[in-house]
């Protein structure tokens, strides 16, 4: 589980807009958001930077915080 969709939507970006910012396809962003693809560490870092957050916030959920809005 990750919070990419929440952060992307908070920015007002489409999947395509985020994909272009990090250098992947829209389909890749869709698969990551739906937990159907495990991105490389490099891509995780690019996503966090583009979304203005850090890896822990984007990909790690302390117990009880799953699904919280950014």
Range of helix content: 55-70%
Query: How would you sum up the major sheet?
Result: none
Based on secondary structure, the structural category is: mainly alpha
Rg result: 11 Å
Quaternary structure annotation? single chain
Order of helices and strands: HHHHH
| Rounded average pLDDT | 90
Low-confidence stretches: none
From the N-terminal CA to the C-terminal CA, the straight-line distance is 14 Å
Number of strands: 0
Give the helix tally: 5
Keywords: DNA-binding
Organism: Schleiferilactobacillus harbinensis
Protein name: Helix-turn-helix transcriptional regulator
Domain HTH cro/C1-type: 4-58
Quickly list its features.
Lambda_DNA-bd_dom_sf, Helix-turn-helix transcriptional regulator, globular, DNA-binding, about 55% helix, Cro/C1-type_HTH, about 70 residues, mainly alpha, 5 helices, single chain
Word description of this protein:
This is Helix-turn-helix transcriptional regulator. Residues 4-58 form the HTH cro/C1-type domain. Keywords: DNA-binding. It comes from Schleiferilactobacillus harbinensis. The chain is an all-alpha fold. The protein has five helices and no strands. The model has no long low-confidence stretch (mean pLDDT 90).
């Amino acid at each position: 589980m990750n919070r990419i969709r929440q952060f992307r939507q908070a920015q007002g970006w489409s999947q395509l807009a985020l994909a272009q910012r990090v250098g992947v396809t829209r389909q890749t962003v869709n698969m990551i958001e739906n937990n159907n693809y495990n991105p490389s560490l490099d891509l995780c870092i690019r996503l966090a930077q583009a979304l203005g957050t850090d890896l822990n916030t984007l990909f790690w959920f302390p117990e009880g915080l799953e699904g919280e809005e950014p």
